[in-house]
Amino acid sequence: MSLFGTTRAGVLLKRKKAHPVSVAPHGVAFELPLDDVQPKGGSHLLAFAGLFVFTLLLYARPNDLFPDLFGDFSTVKFVAIPTILVYVISKLVAGERLTEWPIEVKMVGVILLLCIAFIPVAASPGDSIDRLSDPFLKVVAMFVLMANLINTKRRLRLLMTMMVICATCIAIGAIGDFVEGVFAVKVDGLGTRIAGNVGGIFGNPNDLATSLDLLIPIAVGLALTSKGALRLAFVTCAGVLAVGVVTTFSRGGFLGLVAVGSFLLWKVSRKNRVIAAAAAAAALFVLLAAAPGGYGDRLFTILHTAGDKTGSAQERQEILKRAVAVAARHPIIGVGMNNFHIYSYKERVAHNSYLEISAELGLGGLIAYLILISSPMRSLKRIEVRTSLAQAPGDGRELHLLSIAVQGAMIAYIVCSAFTSIEYLWYLYYPVAFAVALQKLYPLKSPGGERREGRLKLWAERITKGALWDRYRPRLFGAAPPPRRGRLINHKR
After folding, report:
1. What is the rounded average pLDDT of the residues 148-161?
2. Cα dist. 434→135, 271, 403, 414, 439 in Å?
3. Cα–Cα distance, 421 to 337 (Å, whole number)
């Protein structure tokens, strides 16, 4: 049989390879992607190149590293706008929809609509417009591009690898600043905290710790799916990122680090979990013993807030109480995007993403935000469970480990976002985009889901073919009218 088929125009096309199918537990089948198969939705290589460069600029921060060269020139906007234009044009030329609509994209759209809708009722509409224009609109645009363009395994790993390398360089700079005693910022009256050698998403010590926490499980996942020197390099990156978190003196960052480390140890060492737990306890003890002076005292204030000499813990308690009160008084229509500081204690942010988005966007915004977090977690967990067989093929094992890695990044965000206000910033949207990519690359087909779909079709047929609908079906559906019942009458004479 020939491997080629002929189109109507006479062009010879090579027949696509079929996806190999593996059977996971509970009779669930999942398709493993092939690198030489055309990705769903087209390649749009130029648009992805723009997305890659945009992420590189977001993490490398050339304006901060080379201020004399770039000055105030917005390199991110210079790349973002052409990337969006190229993406739209390539989609229109290919005759494709501008975007797919997974639940994650829909929830981001809901949050965006609520941000816009509450601008007129906000106490300071200018503050809402400022936060909406920079950075949230860029976040939404790039998230939509990521959800559509990360459609091959190579692209996913390439983006992950670049982010891990850039963050590792930032962590090395932060460690160097701490060792040399160069403290870039003075936060909460504590002058021994560093902020790293760049700004943006790494400018604040808590934000820096969150960024590094999110990429630790990604580095571990890349290490477990690599070999040789590349595996050692990724393990080294994970260690450097963890040390960078410690040098920030961030309490939320430390809790995120503990959560990520515990999760990864629990998932990776299934057969020796007792030994893994003992090793984790020993590692935590060594970390605290080797930590810089004053680090243990700062962590102790997590449980004993009165012991914080800087007053930061007590102040945050007061802000959280104010956030709960504002959210309770504005359950439907919030106070407006980026307006909580007006109602807050000493013009401070809530230092809790969940309470702040609830106060600013109401209950609808909070629900959309929680769905945006929980939906990828459920999908990743389903992928992990269904690829957990020991006899799974190579791509299945890689899928299993990458799903665990992205879950770890989501857990880091869940923990860290409870101690900082980052709901409109980049931190959440990259892990969610990775989760969307994994769902797209490795589609899961459940027999249970097919049975439910069959039952829905059966009920739909019963409703549309019921006795009460017979006389109206020709008008509604254009179908032929049903035959009349009764005796056949011969009209012939």
Report:
1. 94
2. 20, 28, 9, 16, 9
3. 12
Q: For residue 155, give the nearest of 69, 2, 246, 51 by alpha carbon.
A: 51
Helix (H, G, I), strand (E, B) or coil at 14: strand
Q: Is the pLDDT of residue 430 over 60?
A: yes
Structural tokens at position 350:
């809530």
Q: Is the peptide bond before 431 cis (omega within 30 degrees of 0)?
A: no
**% pLDDT > 70, the chain:** 68
**Neighbour-count burial of 275, counting CB atoms closer than 10 A to its CB (0-12 exposed, 13-18 middle, 19+ buried):** exposed
- Could you tell me the strand order of the sheet in which 444-445 lies? 21-24, 28-31, 444-445
Torsion angle (degrees, nearest 10) of CA 29, 439, 419, 364: -100
- Which of 50, 56, 115, 118 lies closest to 89 in space, CA to CA? 50
DSSP H or E stretch at residue 178: helix 153-180
Torsion of CA 256, 257, 260, 262, to 10 degrees: -110
Residue at 275: amino acid letter: I
First-to-last alpha carbon distance for the chain, in angstroms, is 63
Alpha helices in 41-152 (DSSP H): 45-60, 62-65, 67-70, 75-94, 103-117, 125-131, 137-149
**Tokens describing residue 213:** 């926490």
User: Hey, what amino acid is at 484?
Assistant: R
**What is the rounded CA–CA span in Å between residue 381 and residue 87?**
31
Whole-angstrom distance, CA of residue 155 vs CA of residue 152: 5
Q: Model pTM?
A: 0.80
